[in-house]
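Worked Example 4.2. Read the sequence first, then its structure tokens.
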Amino acid sequence: MAVGLGITTTRTAAHKDRSRRSMLVGGGYMYRDRIRQNYERLSKNQKRIADFLMTSHREAAFMTASQLAKMLSVDVASITRFAQRLEYRGYPELLDEVQAFVKEEMSAGFRPVEGQSEAGRLFLRTLTVERENLERTLAGISVEAAEQAIQILAHARVIYAVGQHTGGYLAAGLAVRLGLLGLKAVVVTGDGVQISLMARDITAEDAVIGFGFTAYASDVAAVLAVARDRRAKTVGVTGSVVSPIARVADVTLICSATSSTHIPSEVAMNAVIEGIFQTLASQRADVYNSQQQAYSTFYQQFTRYVRYPTAPITETMMKHY
């Protein structure tokens, strides 16, 4: 069985030809289409495998069935049954397509374009990768999980938004915008002491949403674990089904974070955050309008006492605050 992108397999030429035709049906990669078409009918373990292949395909391309099974905490037979559920004869045939997809994805960034500088090529490649991240996230994310996450946040007494490093900025951005909807939100970030101070009042009536990309999000996972111990509802937004956050959250939303560098992309995660916020905003339109009216009233009073010139509040300004 092939275990890497550069290793020659012992399969017959006829088998390779069948796999190649399968990959190119409709100009795309059949395994991704088959996952999309069958996702809702997959078992819990099979969805776990599907999520990993859709969002972490570069890692999966180098894994044997046993390595993938160990990574996802499932048995090898589950990997085989998953491949057969997608109408492959076994995991090796499925792996062929995953490897071909990764080869195509990686080589696309190095195709020279006449008249473009290296910086220009990398810039365009980054935009292409981000488009693919959005497409993968849209194809693989569970709508049911998104609906559950939105309900959890909508009915929470307090929403604790947790993140470390770049995840902290995402958490802070969401918390500020939730305040516009009349929802009480607290940002939790920093070291252990700061986290404990910010999150000490979590109760069963609250919700905790955590953001993180890799294994370095262990502090965020720890906050979610404590919150679960206190019977609070927890939501994880992360880049992999095997991240620490995904292991402890009640509801997990997986965002593709592939990038042209070693730094995970935030684009798909920002899109998911935006989807959550806009849905809540639509559900709480009356509250939002009331909040904005209160803001407008205070601002008008406030400007009576300031000495610098102020412009009248316009409808356009209101939309951005």
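Now turn to a second chain, presented in exactly the same format:
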Amino acid sequence: MLLRKQQTVDLFAITDYNRFQTQLESIHDSVHVIVGGSMAVINYAAFDPIFWLHHCNVDRLMAMYQNIQPNKTMTPGPRSPTLALGGDGNDTASTPLYPFRHPDRDEWTPDELMSYTSIFELGYSYPEVQPKQVVKRAKGDPDHRNTTTQRASRNHTVVQVNSLYAPDNGTEQTRLEWSVVILVDTADFNESCRIMVFISPAQNATDGPVGVAPIFIRQAGSSGVDTHVNTTIPLTQALKDRGLGSLQPDQVVPTLKDQLFWIIEKAGNTDVIPVDSIPSLRVAVFSREASYATNKVPTKGDSTPYYDVTEGKPGGLKQGDPPILKVKPVTEVSDS
């Protein structure tokens, strides 16, 4: 629960829409893979009732993000093949969203849905994005562009996000946070799987994972379509639970160097896939400073990599490898 809350609050600090989309997709995929059964098989997932509850929540998180980070838009990229559009060309903010149409039969497009208030036109909302001040905007109020109204709406959502998801319910604090970042090409897998991350003195998987990176297989890749997935797994709470003296590198790095490991399991069972059989796998450890307050969007500092934690482990990032995040220079930490 605490892991998922941290992953969720981190979404709203992202100012690049494509990066937000990638991390939201990772949260989305993890539910499909962890629930398993038909939810882990794209052809059958929509027949499971939890599919619809799950996607309502994804829509809710999207609306909350649009309110907190307005005017962020997608960067066009190669289109994944669909029955309606094929696989040629780019997806843009004007790509038709088949099969969803207006009453006049024109297709909806992403640029019509860039504001969270677009859901009002569709006749619904969520408590986190619907304070009384903005209800009138759904009814065609001519003053719907009033900046005071917009600010009140955004502040309402920020407070809700911090209350629901921030550490200690958004209590004002600044702390050093740790995470594992996993980059892998889904083309290396034949079926949905999960990469499970552990911190265990005995390198024992029975201790339970501290996080899971989902590999949710949708369809075969096509030319020009990037099939890599990038998942960030927070480690801060897991490290605190292990009673370290502090979250500073001199305490954390030796612990992770000795105890951090990962395995790959098939979705829905415990069959293990050898980690070294996935050539694209890259696993890295980073720290960054984070600041929280009840009425402000969380802020995150630059990420610092620690290659000595992962170097020598299957798929572990090592000094000299291309970065998988925009980072500041590495800090060397002695084991002593």
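Notes for the reader: The chain is about 30% helix and 20% strand. Residues 171-310 form a domain with the Hemocyanin; Chain: A, domain 2 fold (CATH 2.60.310).
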